[in-house]
């Protein structure tokens, strides 16, 4: 197990990720293969095939993840299979965003499941529930009820906010 501290280690983290994440395709698919991560610390557990980033984590694939901790699980072929974000989690993709206590990203299915005070926003519209599932390739969203069995939504009649403020600004994820 290796532990690295400080933002100056970003280069080491990126170098490691480039070794772990191979780009076998070109174009948009290749862009999704690269994950850039910035954090205060990085820990690699090669036996468990797990990389742990801690402290003000910002990760970018074709969407942004901001959180306190990020766990990247990879396969025996050194391909990322899953990312788990915990602690003040914010997900941003263009004008859409979501937040919660925990998010699990299944890379093969391109699905993010957010739990714990889950909330999604887009252009001023907002929806809350216990569990929000984001389907990244189809832009579909499934919101499951909160503890009292209800989903809460606020739909704005005018979408001016969508042009004025990005989801990243609203959620505080650069």
* Secondary-structure element series: EHHEEEEEEEEEEHH
Do you know the CATH topology? lipopolysaccharide transport protein A fold
Count of folded domains = 1
Mean pLDDT metric? 80
| Helix-residue proportion | 10-25%
For the record, the CATH architecture stands as Sandwich
Percent strand equals: over 45%
Strand segment tally: 11
Distance between the termini: 30 Å
Q: Which oligomeric state applies?
A: single chain
| Overall outline | globular
The CATH class name reads Mainly Beta
Architecture overview:
- The longest helix is centred in the first third of the chain and has 11 residues.
- The chain is of the alpha+beta class and 174 residues long.
- The two termini are 30 Å apart.
- 16% of the residues lie in helices and 52% in strands.
- The protein has one domain: Lipopolysaccharide (LPS) transport protein A like domain (lipopolysaccharide transport protein A fold).
- Strand 9 and strand 10 form a beta hairpin.
- About 13% of the residues have low confidence.
- Strands 1, 2, 3, 4, 5, 6, 7, 8, 9, 10 and 11 form an eleven-stranded antiparallel sheet that branches.
- The chain contains four helices and eleven strands.
